[in-house]
Predict the structure.
Amino acid sequence: MVKTQLKARDIKDRATLHAMSNVPRHLFVPQNMKSQAYIDAPLPIGNGQTISQPYIVAFMTQELRLKSTDKVLEIGTGSGYQAAVLAKIVDSVYTIEIVKNLAMTAKDRLQELGYTNVNVKWGDGYHGWPIKAPFDAIIVTAGAEAIPQPVIDQLKNGGRMIIPVGPNNSVRQLVLIKKTENKIITKNLIPVRFVPFTRENEKNREHKKIP
Ligand code: SAH
């Protein structure tokens, strides 16, 4: 996977390549998906969600230009795979997942695999993780219609954030955000498809519609 899908494309960052060579992706997918864990595609992880394609995980990680001393926030824990990749590179990772079942499974999995520098929280990532802020880098792994202001507020000056932005059910742009002296600079990187960034209250509304 690392050789043919990452190095053969434009992934050059040594820390990213090292991390992805060392995180066992097959332990982050459901039992019936294990034989496909290293293919060049996203895979279903239950609850209608997906683990991202390896290349996208690598691309987003590389764009964050991480340092080993960084404290990173991830929104959209999913399987915990991206969090594990980050945990191989940086000091501490804080990750938030809105689907309780996924949050709990990822938390247990990361603990069992010995990723002691990852903290998993079940909740709506729209609010970020204020008591742990500010962060050196922030990665949002669900597709948002707009950049959540509370999250961007929790990015350090000099920090980088990456987030897929665009309308639901459509191709989005992977947006890189740099914050310097409280000014925000954004750059569109590549078109991507991501499961939607949902909100807690929207979920409740949906549930109430079911008779
Ligand atoms: N990074 C994951 C894949 C993410 S899929 C991995 O490595 O496996 C996107 C995830 O974002 C889904 O699990 C979805 O439930 C979650 N999500 C969507 N909206 C969210 C929100 N507002 N806060 C936290 N998590 C959210």
